[in-house]
Amino acid sequence: MALVTLDNGQNILIDINIRASADGEDEDVHDVAQDLKDRLPRDDEDRPYVDAFLVSHPDADHVSGLRNHFHLGALDEYPDEEDKDRIVIREMWSSPIVFRRANSQHKLCDDAKAWATEARRRVNLFKEKGMDGTDSGDRILILGKDRDGKTDDIMDIVVLQDELITAANREEDGQFEARLLAPIYIDPDQEDAEELIDLLSKNNSSVILRFAIMADGTEDACRFLSGGDASVAIWDRLWQRHKDSNSDWLSYDVMETPHHCSWRTLSHDRWSEMGEDVKVSPDARNALSQCREGAHIVASSNPIKKEEPNPPHERAKREYVSITSADRFHCTEEFWEKNSRPIEFTISHQGPSFSHRVAAKKVAAAIGISAIPTVARGHGSRDGE
Ligand SMILES: [Zn+2]
């Protein structure tokens, strides 16, 4: 999960993976939900809330814990006085295409189904009551157009590919902008059949956003690139699409490596077949290496070891280190093992800085990126190694 905290106190949450084993009973596993709740403000009714919550794509390792820790449904159905523990989602950020593509090939986990149900509730409410009739807790932004004109009658809440999001929960005050780089539009008639299957896969339908965040009144103080689990085919295309006039759209000060530092984000070659002979795809590498000076790259993954299955992959780490430097490449779980806390960047007008210490309680703009520290176990979706 990543939590972006803005100067005005708003919070944008990206993905969650809160396993039941992290819900307090097992003392060896960090209670990541409590950690999140401790960082969030509470509303007039003492309910913790996020201003916006994006699920990049509906895989279990990006949405687990939704039903246990978040309030779903109308706010007047929020649990009573005794139970003020569920996080209110003031505005959902959701891509319909991600779910549609997931349906054709993969089964959705129960948390992903719950997310889709809540998204539908909010879209229907918008159709019925419009902008003015949908308050905090009922709002949704749709990222990318749906197929067959399904989003044509709700374009006021749709963000198109290449467009900017400039407000969380409709609070437009210049705190950030986030460009929707993907899911990319795919024309089935223009693709060869094998490539089409890959392009329409769940991972490759991930939402990719590039944030520009204000700090201390300085616009664009930190650029943050968040790419879900998108793999090499998507990054190749983004580079082809933007290299001539908009390569700046891919630039970053902080990037979370797509797909947990997977090798197949950077290359079409299989490590299991070619080993050190594998080649990096120049287009994907270009897309992922538009760093501003002193940029940091974060792998949200298990500790990265040579013998571990992909992801994370040690060869991918080497590539990212060559893009930044060894001391600006970070792995969430390796960091946890040493420091017992998530990775955090605080943002000033000079840009982001890596927090070597626990930040003072009240920081201004910040990005926190966390994985649940626990014994290493296989990642849910291997990527064909
Ligand atoms: Zn994942």
Folded structure, characterized:
The two termini are 25 Å apart. The chain has a single domain (2-369), classed as 4-Layer Sandwich (Metallo-beta-lactamase, Chain A). The chain is 24% helix and 22% strand. The strands form three sheets. A nine-stranded mixed β-sheet has the order 9-8-7-5-2-1-19-17-18. It has a seven-stranded mixed β-sheet with strand order 10-11-12-13-14-15-16. The model is unreliable at 372-385 (pLDDT under 50). The chain has eleven helices and 19 strands. With 385 residues, it is α/β, with parallel strands linked by helices. The protein has helices at residues 32-39, 60-63, 66-69, 96-105, 110-129, 193-199, 232-242, 271-274, 282-287, 314-323, 332-339; strands at residues 2-5, 11-14, 16-17, 49-50, 52-54, 88-89, 91-94, 139-143, 158-159, 164-165, 176-182, 208-215, 218-226, 252-256, 291-299, 329-331, 343-348, 351-354, 366-369. The protein is globular. The longest helix has 20 residues, at 110-129. Zinc ion binds at residues 59, 61-62, 229, 260.
CATH class: Alpha Beta
Low-pLDDT ranges? 372-385
Q: Could you please say which CATH topology applies here?
A: Metallo-beta-lactamase, Chain A
Bound molecules: zinc ion
Whole-Å distance between the termini?
25 Å
Work out the helix count: 11
Q: Label the structural class.
A: alpha/beta
Radius of gyration: 20 Å
Approximately how much beta-strand content do the residues carry?
15-25%
What would you say about this model in short?
The protein is an alpha/beta fold and about 375 residues long.
